[in-house]
Amino acid sequence: MHSVIRGACRDLPVRSRSRMARLRFRVGLPNQQHRPYNVTSSLSSETSSASSNLPIYRPREDGLEPHHGHRPPLTHEIAQLSATLEGQSVSLGGWIFSQRRASASLHFFTLRDTSASVQLVCKDSEISQKLMDFPLESVVSIQGIVRARKQKAKAGPSSATLSTADEVEVEVTGCILLNAADPLPFYASRQEMASEEIRAEHRYLDLRRSELAANLKLRSKVAHIIRCHLHDQKFDEVETPVLLNSSPEGAREFVVPTRTLKPSQIPNDTSLQPTFYALQQSPQQPKQLLIASGATSRYFQIARCFRDEDGRKDRQPEFTQVDLEMGFVEGTGEQGESWECSEFRTLLIRERLGNELDTWSMGGQQVKQVVEGLIRKIWKEIKGIELGEFRCMPYQVAMDVYGSDKPDTRFEMFTLPLGYYPDLSDADLDKVLLDQSQYTVEWMITRSEHAKYLNMDDLRNDHVQAIHIREDNVKSWHTESPFTQKLGLTMTGDGAVTGGGVQPGDIIWLAQRKKVAEGGWTQLGRLRVQMLDELVRQGALKLSDQPNFLWITQFPLFTRADEDKAFLSKGRWASTHHPFTAPMFEDLEDLKGGNVEKVRGQHYDLVLDGQEIGGGSVRIHDANLQEYVMRDVLKLEQDEIARFSHLLQALRFGAPPHGGMALGLDRLVAILCGAKSIREVIAFPKTQAGSDPVFKSPSVVAADVLRDYGLESRKRS
């Protein structure tokens, strides 16, 4: 208090200063205006005794006190400096992050602000000494004159992402120390990197790295582009609640206890149990209600979402998504050729992928058009790239051809059911189809020019067999595999017709799986990505830099519960996307007839070079069908269905057909930045385990705080 009072006195008028002097007398504060912050050095023993209960300010031992008074206002950011300002006086602010003495009368420094860095030249010995005394990373105010540089060599640490004012330097005429830095645990400006643990604990220092700072600026620019584009498309930005009711619709939730809302204040709740909110996993239900309300037919928000998932690679318990919903979307799409045609096995895979994959044969085309327009806008403004066609591929085809529901299609190594092997005769095909009505053997070829780069020990898999092709087994390799031995294949077909036959030096991979694909990967699909990464790492394969966007459509509407949803499913069917996804129109009768495994959903994911960047669906807008899905397919209990009563009522009261999508903003920005992890584009990310090293969360809550919520602490079993 004393230091605050005395520090304020300097800027007060005379009359106010006299009143402050009387106040000093009453509280025993010494009258030392010339050293307003150095209280301890001048306190007498009597004063110290009388004021022992008052706070005492302790100055820095090095005497480098922060500046609190007037200073010249900033005139420019460093990035604004150019040769056109030659000879002009400027006032800058930033961090000193390098010092160099050229001679007794010439010193060089580097000043960094949030926009760029610039070389400072100091010819005044007194100012030079002051700057040399400032610790690195101290915050300073610099006054100087812009000078054109004689050479463009960069001074001090450089960066590929933080620009440097190469054209000019600033001749220093004055400096003010705003805040001296203590010795840092690490210096972001240096080439050697501190450990990940240290950098995570001091994330605010790690953000001084120009790469991370540039990522955050780019993220801000992307968010601005998104808002502007969607507003231009007549979307309304609407905020929806974050504190919702727990519902069995997806992954595990974070629950938030409340002490102010008692059970008696909750409608239809007569229990004495503690009450909880659940943090939203997504704004799914609120945005559907918005469309049902008629207040808007085009909604969006950049929404914070929360999922209490186990630690996995590159996931965060709190994340950001670009969320949108549209009313009056179409419920059916273009009618294209089915991928079940028998001619597939006799056609070049490459031709098939190029000519017949681009049919959007379901509803939600309006959503597709809006999202593609948004992505094109982002890539044009951020990367200067005009994007090509966004292609479409049904889920089952993606799993059959690439072994993944998010395939990287830049690399033509295909995983295919054995029935598509080109050397099969008609008799062989009949044997395969007869044997594999429920399960299929899938195969994949690694050509000899790539096979020589692979370490087979690294690729060893108990579920996959590798057969090396030699001169003597080109036509008999199938006899070396337990997957194919029992079929008695002749391999008399002409593989040259499709270019798919094996040659000496190739490796053929075999694995068995269910005929109807499940989940996100097959065994060969995982192996394909592993080989792709290794070939790229060794320089044996160069992938295209052109972004390759792909829509994956027609996912199974229901699947057996995965690990995330097992606690909800109890062995029952679970929604592949969420329980509000509409079935394909052609599969509606199968759904009503109970043939759940045959039903495809109007669900679509957007994939970029093997990474899913967003997903969405057309929603069920029929209350009876929605309740049927919850009650008879998902087997939800009546009290679980009651948690969706508001949604069911909204559908009954007149909801238009609607659909939407969510784009993962974190991953989208990471791709644009070329970042290896989404943590590099989030200001204060959590660790893979979900902890926050900066804010030390999560943490244990005191017992008396828990009691306010009607809770008590117990050790986990």
The proportion of strand residues reads 15-25%
Helix content: 25-40%
Distance between the termini: 49 Å
Give the overall silhouette: globular
Residue-averaged pLDDT: 84
Structural class: alpha+beta
Q: Please compute the radius of gyration using only Cα atoms.
A: 33 Å
Largest sheet, described in full? 8 strands, mixed
Number of distinct beta strands: 23
Low-confidence stretches: 1-44, 153-161, 336-356, 494-499, 565-570
User: Main sheet: which strands, in order across?
Assistant: 7-11-12-23-22-21-18-13
Number of helices: 22
Question: Keywords, please?
Answer:
single chain, 717 residues, alpha+beta, OB fold (Dihydrolipoamide Acetyltransferase, E2P), eight-stranded mixed β-sheet, five-stranded mixed β-barrel, 27% helix, globular, disordered N terminus, ligase, Asp-tRNA-ligase_1_N
Provide a descriptive summary of the structure in words.
With 717 residues, the chain is of the alpha+beta class. Among the domains are: 49 residues, no CATH class; 102 residues, Nucleic acid-binding proteins (OB fold (Dihydrolipoamide Acetyltransferase, E2P), Beta Barrel); 112 residues, no CATH class. 27% of the residues lie in helices and 20% in strands. The protein is built from 22 helices and 23 strands. The strands form 5 sheets. The protein has an 8-stranded mixed β-sheet with strand order 7-11-12-23-22-21-18-13, with helices on both faces. Strand 2 and strand 3 form a beta hairpin. The longest helix is centred in the N-terminal third of the chain and has 23 residues. Belongs to the class-II aminoacyl-tRNA synthetase family. Type 1 subfamily. GO terms for molecular function: aspartate-tRNA ligase activity; ATP binding; nucleic acid binding. One of its GO terms (cellular component) is mitochondrion. InterPro entries: Aa-tRNA-synt_II (IPR004364), aa-tRNA-synth_II (IPR006195), aa-tRNA-synth_II/BPL/LPL (IPR045864), Asp-tRNA-ligase_1 (IPR004524), Asp-tRNA-ligase_1_N (IPR047089), Asp/Asn-tRNA-synth_IIb (IPR002312), GAD-like_sf (IPR004115), NA-bd_OB-fold (IPR012340). Keywords: Aminoacyl-tRNA synthetase, ATP-binding, Ligase, Nucleotide-binding, Protein biosynthesis.
